[in-house]
Amino acid sequence: MSLRKLSVEQLLERASTGHRGALGRLLTLAENSATSEAVTEATFGLSKAAHIVGITGSPGAGKSTMVGQLVAHLTKDSQTPPAVLAIDPSSPLSGGAILGDRVRMMDVDDVAFIRSVATRGHAGGLAMSVPGCVRVFDAMAYDPVIIETVGVGQVEVDITAAADTTVVVVSPGMGDAVQANKAGLLEVADIFVVNKADRPGASDTRRDLDLMLDLSHMTGQEDTEYRPPIIMCNSLVGDTVGEIADAIDTHKQYLQSSGKGVERRAGRARFEVANRLRQQFEANLEGVLDSDTRVLTQAAAGQISPLAAANALAEQVLRF
Amino acid sequence: MSESRIRVVLAKLGLDGHDRGIKVVARILRDAGMEVIYLGLRQTTDSIIAAAEQEDADAIGLSMHNAGHLTLAPSMLHALKDAEMDVPLVIGGIIPTQDVDELLSAGVSGVIGPGASAEEVVDIVRTAVAAVARSSESGPEAG
Amino acid sequence: MSTSPSGPEYDAWKEAYDATKKRDVPFETMSGVPVDAVYGDAPYPGQYPFTRGVHASMYRSRLWTMRMFAGFGTAEDTNARFKELLRSGSTGLSTAFDMPTLMGRDSSSPWALGEVGRAGVAVDTLADMEDLFADINLGDVSTSMTINGPAATVLAMYVAVAEKTGVEVNQLRGTIQNDILKEYQAQKEYIYPPRPSMRIVTDMVKYTTAKMPMFNPVSISGYHIREAGSTAAQELAFTLANGFAYVEAALAEGQDVNEFGKRLSFFFNSHSDFFEEIGKFRAARRIWARWMKERYGATDERAMLCRFHTQTAGVSLTAQQPEINIARVAIQALAGALGGTQSLHTDSYDEALALPTEKAARIALRTQQIVAHETGVTHVADPLGGSPYVEWMTDEMERQAEEIFAHLDDLGNGSILEGCYVGIENGYFVGEIADSAYRFEREVNAGRRIVVGVNDFTEGDEGEGELLRIDAAVEDYQLKRLESIKQERDSDAVAASLTQLTADAADPTINLMPAILEATKAYATLEEIAAAMEKEFGTYVEKAIV
User: Fold this and answer.
1) Cβ distance C207 to C220 under 8 Å?
2) A115 contacts B34? CB cut-off 8 A
3) Do the Cβ atoms of A189 and A195 come closer than 8 Å?
4) What is the C-alpha separation between C243 and C313, in angstroms, rounded?
């Protein structure tokens, strides 16, 4: 029986009995705009409050290796199976993508659920479909849900809006700590991991991070009750990922005890609602501009100012 | 949320390490707008099945250069059947034309032989995906 | 009329030339015009930096070794092919192993299904190696073994066969590929992570330096890098950089560069762009000599020589109109000869589709015999030297390679060895190779580059004709053979030897070769031996770089 014939509800039913193909299909439906709303509507009430962990860092920091080891650790240690959304960029030219992160996790994908996601044109290191996919995993009792972002080395603050705990991975040398700071990753990090800690320069990187945390502490940017730990991780030795898992757990406790978790979830809801509104506005806007050319013609002829033209159309955009 | 795209799992089944062809095919499919989940070397039928399920693959592409295609392709088809999956299987690599019919009649959906052009590669994959999609209904509508 | 060469360099060359024995053939054109042994300017062949060749007399003294790669089915099948090749004038043996063997797996491994004996010969235990070389005196032949991941075990088996048949180990001649770095870069037949793998290579270098002075412990191979899709310059640069890495590793172990340097050899691809290939070969000799002398302090000129084997480009063979591959192979073989190769394998025209049939393999051998005996190109060393185009191409290849060395040196903070490790870990090599491969495919696809029979001149394809099929019975035979060896052997001795090997692996100061040799003599299998080291070293999974 082809999974393609099944409705969202039927797929959810199958997925909840452990049918992985059905869950895979649901994620596809959550990704595609024609069906994503239906998946959201069917899953938003089913949350088991999974802990959502974002992992980001500059390219070549060894993120995917580290995530692979972390997932392997979690499959042994966690009560519930972990899920991973591994995000890679889509080609801006063709819209296609090559998604290669799975390779690092294939020895544990009998327990963990790994899904590769292309950004499909969305900037900021995440794909638009991430919240919808996370919700599907959460509904199916996967916990934690790990989001591995695109390592583009640019601002990836999207991740904070999607995750409860954000892990920033840097590698020693080449001023990676400074780069991370410039890219705005310092503010979003709940945990730092210095990967390849066996390499020369690792302790310098640690010191740089410490210093920058001190500075942001003094300028009041930093939460006074929580200071992000810096974990030295040697990917050649498997057991340091245990420390990362522990740090994630500690941060999770902190979010609960401090009430920050509620704040983050509120922020996430706001982000998602705002995004949906923005999309809706965009669509309306294009629709109005296409259908009502009269005002545009006047603006082009210099008969009315751009501001006046926008004001004249604003109402229609809201009602469109 | 965005337009749906053809998702293809590409892998080397078995020990053979020749990956020039499969990497070129990965880029050709990407440049044709598909999403390629690249598993790389030394995969088993089990690991490919797991990936195809979780990634909801529209097609699986396997590359073979060691004359093992008449053994390995049927074993992959068998594994797909056991898993009750209707995902089309495309085989690429050094496949003599005299073996193509045998592979197709065994249930392989397409064969990418040596010297296939980019257009042929894309066409073989699209045709394989479309054939399976036709045999089942299209995806459920919202609501 | 040009003036006759003179000067101290010419005199030195003349002295070296006169001191070597020549083949007993007339060195004259087909029309009877005598020709000189060298033309053009100094430095002459056999003189630093050896751009023009590694010997003063080149092919006048000795033709290149006509080494044809063979191996399929069982060891007995390949043994028969070896004897046939020796009878038909081949002067060295070259062994292809099947994929499970190359990966250190036994024929009984679930991974081996469908691969046993398909792309080469299956070797599980010493018994297979004994069959492979049955009735061939190892003291009389030069044997090349193309294997990398489990190279130490296969070398140990070869040594064990020699010992058992009464051949002195120090009489063994040949080459084991054992170039593990290019496995991570191109061929992908690795077992352990790069660093422990390098230890094994270094142990083999030390072992052969001490006990097998005529055996080359590493054949630094660009062939596979090129087949994987690199450009000529990348092939040149990555290969020589790997060579530098082995030199640095051996130096770090206190080995004498003048000793091990003499026994490093190379293996290049000969592709279809005639002058680019010749420039590449000439540049390889010059770069290697300069680096060995200037950077690594070699003082013995023999340790500065880039001696290399060449194989025509398998990747250039087309499945369409396969017979025309004979012409491609001839041109590529000619480039190898004009580039001064020390040995040559010519591909069979049917290899785009399957292993060669006997007839196709014979035609391939005949092709290089024509180049050697009919064309006259062997009369003169470096006959193209001094051509402005060839000299420019040589310089250009060197320039591109030096750029890549500078990048690797940078990656490794002044160490090419570290640079190679970093380049492997961060995907530099595989990424560069994949980019070049894709660029080439796109050019062919767009019709900017013509491949005869594929995207132009396509009429007249009559299909593939007869192909060699490996009988599936090989697998059954091999499994039974392995089973019976396991029954007959002393299992306590096997277990003890493997325990010792794991223990030795844990101590980086111990050379692994003696323990591996003991294990092979106890008839431990290839996979058992690999597993014993894997316990200590772990395995390698590559990052997906497309």
Assistant:
1) no
2) no
3) no
4) 21
**Closest residue by Cα to residue A76 from A277, A245, A300:** A245
Domain-located, residue C115 = yes
- Please provide the CATH number assigned to the domain covering A47-258: 3.40.50.300
Helix (H) / strand (E) containing C334: helix C325-338
- Render pLDDT for C216-225 as a digit per residue (tens, 0 to 9): 999 999 999 9
Residue to test with chain A: of C410, C421, C435, C543, most A Cβ within 10 A: C543
Between CA C356 and CA C174 the distance in angstroms is 23
Nearest to A55 by CA among A143, A123, A149, A141: A149
Work out whether the CA dihedral B60, B61, B63, B64 comes out positive or negative: positive
The torsion region of residue B70 among left (phi > 0), alpha (psi -120 to 50) and beta comes to: alpha
Architecture of domain B7-105: 3-Layer(aba) Sandwich (3.40)
CA A258 – CA C387 distance, rounded (Å):
79
**pLDDT tens for each residue of B71-103:** 899 999 999 999 999 999 999 998 988 899 999
**Considering only alpha carbons, which residue of chain A is nearest residue C544?**
A100
Count Cβ atoms within 10 A of the Cβ of residue C247 and give its class: 0-12 exposed, 13-18 middle, 19 or more buried: buried
Show Cβ contacts of residue C528 under 8 Å, excluding neighbours closer than 6 positions: C106, C494, C498, C519
Q: Determine whether the interchain pair A98/C546 forms a contact, defined as Cβ–Cβ distance below 8 Å.
A: yes
Q: Which residues of B touch C103 (CB under 8 A)?
A: 15
Interface test with B, best of A6, A106, A126, A146 (most B CBs within 10 A): A106
C190 touches C429 (CB < 8 A): no
Q: Scanning every residue of chain B, which has its alpha carbon at the shortest distance from the alpha carbon of C228?
A: B20
- Kindly list the distances between the CA atom of residue A248 and the CA atoms of A48, A234, A251, A270, C12, in Å, as whole numbers in the listed order: 18, 18, 5, 24, 73
| More reliable by pLDDT, C113 or C517 | C517
For residue C324, is it within any domain? yes
Q: What is the mean pLDDT of residues C433-441?
A: 95
Mean pLDDT of chain C: 94
Task: Give the Cα separation of C149 and C159 in Å (integer).
Answer: 18
User: What does the block give as tokens for B123?
Assistant: 């066409």
CB C99 within 8 A of CB B15: yes
Q: Which residues of chain A have pLDDT under 70?
A: 1, 122-126, 151-157, 173-177, 180, 182-183, 217-224, 235-239
Which residue in the set B19, B27, B119 is minimally distant from C438, CB to CB? B27
Domain assignment present for residue C34? The answer is no
SS (H, E, C) C15-61: HHHHHCCCCCCCCECCCCCECCCCCCCCCCCCCCCCCCCCCCCHHHC
Taking the domains of chain A in order of start, what are their residue ranges?
1-45, 47-258, 270-319
Would you state the pLDDT for residue C1? 43
C425 min Cα distance to partner chain A (Å): 9
> Residue A296 carries which side chain, given as an amino acid letter?
L
Report residue A72 as tokens.
Answer: 């392997």
Q: Which of A58, A67, A91, A104 to mutate to test the interface with C (most CBs of C within 10 A)?
A: A104
**What domain range includes position C222?**
58-445
- Going across the sheet that includes A191-194, the strands are A113-118, A83-88, A145-148, A52-57, A165-170, A191-194, A230-232
- Rounding to the nearest 10 degrees, give the CA dihedral for residues A13, A18, A21, A27: 70
